[in-house]
Histidinol-phosphate aminotransferase
Amino acid sequence: MRTWEKNVRTVVPYTPGEQPKFVDVIKLNTNENPYPPSPKVKECLEKMNTEAFRLYPEPACDTLVDALAETYHMDRDEIFVGVGSDDVLAMCFLTFFNSGKPVFFPDITYSFYDVWADVFRIPYECQPLDKDFRIVKEDYYRENGGVVFPNPNAPTGILMELSEIEDIIRHNQDVVVIIDEAYVDFGGKSALELVHKYDNVLVVQTFSKSRSMAGMRIGYAFGSKVLIKYLNDVKYSFNSYTMNRPALELGKAALADPAYFEECCGKIIATRERVKKELSRLGFSFGDSMANFLFVTHERISARELFEALKIKKIFVRYFNKPRIDNYLRITIGTDEEMDQLLAFLKKYIQEN
Amino acid sequence: MRTWEKNVRTVVPYTPGEQPKFVDVIKLNTNENPYPPSPKVKECLEKMNTEAFRLYPEPACDTLVDALAETYHMDRDEIFVGVGSDDVLAMCFLTFFNSGKPVFFPDITYSFYDVWADVFRIPYECQPLDKDFRIVKEDYYRENGGVVFPNPNAPTGILMELSEIEDIIRHNQDVVVIIDEAYVDFGGKSALELVHKYDNVLVVQTFSKSRSMAGMRIGYAFGSKVLIKYLNDVKYSFNSYTMNRPALELGKAALADPAYFEECCGKIIATRERVKKELSRLGFSFGDSMANFLFVTHERISARELFEALKIKKIFVRYFNKPRIDNYLRITIGTDEEMDQLLAFLKKYIQEN
């Protein structure tokens, strides 16, 4: 090892789901939306002026922030935007979790939380979900350096009641509490109203799932003005201009089509509920997911075996080789046609094995 | 102050140049390129498929990395890309400057270096430029935690010879040395060849200046495979997908038009050299800038006065209220027409005052 290597911040990075390059796959492994973005996004792209690309984008991202303010009835000073909700959450960890006390999050949750904690040298403590994969709210009542959890939780899909979330917030008035709502539009209830009641609460959402724009990298957070100010100060200390011009403009265009947004979410919810029934019949069990994925385990055949068998058939789902969940598959809800192909394969495989 | 506020990472953020919203301004304050991006960028945008936006972009940014590899005759494992060179440099600070010893950079330089050092709690020590605003290479021969400087330097525009840069590198084999080449395409010589000779050297460049794509946020770094691997590990611990689909595709399109790139750089260099002569005649003095801006001081009229007078005429230049440079203006090289309007105003103002 060379001397300079001793000064390197070494980390174990997050492993994203595979992004296979060939086209004839059924891709149910990274919770993308099976439907394209709103036609308004296409219209906006067609009108986009490339000459303006020579100029920096708006540092305060006004175009997008104003559109979010209008859509969600918030003040523009209560909104922070970033390069996907991962960027938003990374900035939150960097900004708010500096007490030296451990940050609390569930043991089974979005697997980026411990990665951010590690990269920023933030201590953390995982709170185990109960046997039904539910968050035990009392575990979060002890002294800590901050709280973060997704609602619905990932990869379980299980939704927590707003009243329970408020209980956690009430017991954590001295730290920042982050509610990661990447999947809330598929049947959950947002904690947005709590942002007005508690100045230490951040609600984080994304365009990657319900708005079909994972490829555009747009995430955002709602919080009190004082929280958002701190977040922006750190953002401006990292990169003045994070959102490029197409992200700002196309993000705004997507928000301008609420009917399409609701239609897509409705279709995914309908498909999810149908698939739940079909998978039950095939011997799978799972929690009552309110997200655009299911987290399933089979009564007889191991998750790893199914994962490998599906992959050979070019059906990609997500398998986590981690304690407590190594016999589960996370399956994104695709189109009805994609799900029918998945179900047909599973039915045949289970009969034959 | 609420208790949770005590845990906030407080910072003094970088202040970017103003981005005025009205259109009839002459904008010479943020070193943007006055010419639009290559027509190939427009063609690429017109062909872009918005349906693909529903899918995450390539985590390893292959499209863009491969195009950079081809353009610069590098191996793809020697290239890192980010959301503008600010993102690349921020990641470099976070990854490589962890020794606890002070990082060295010039006292007059890109004013984001001390901001990154502060946000990541990295100690630093500024090395004064000499009276002609030149880097004194011997100042960098002492023990340190890393070295970073722009070449040409900003906001002075002064270029350092490659042999001098190599002297600094030779004396700093135990730390990472970063050469920030945001402005190198306007007449400088890149240190790219030194990347193959020294495994601790990073060369950082951007699409924001010479490729007319500040609004797209694309930056990149060249370095040894081991350096790039460390950088990517930290990047993947921050945000798996930093570059959105348009950035990857349009960046590649811009690289596919070297003739246009050289033409634009040539025009800016020609304008710069002409403006140097005209400004000399008006009583301005300045170093021999090799960037797309000039850093000028007038023999009689204060920089602040000129800055304010120009602003009233909707000509925006950059003024830094900082020690040693508070009587200087940084003026971006615009089109010939824009520079003629600037020169006409300055001539009249100087005659009348």
Summary: The mean pLDDT of chain A is 96. The first helix of chain A runs from residue 39 to 47. Residues 54 and 327 of chain A are 51 Å apart (CA to CA). Chain A touches chain B through 88 residues (CB under 8 Å).
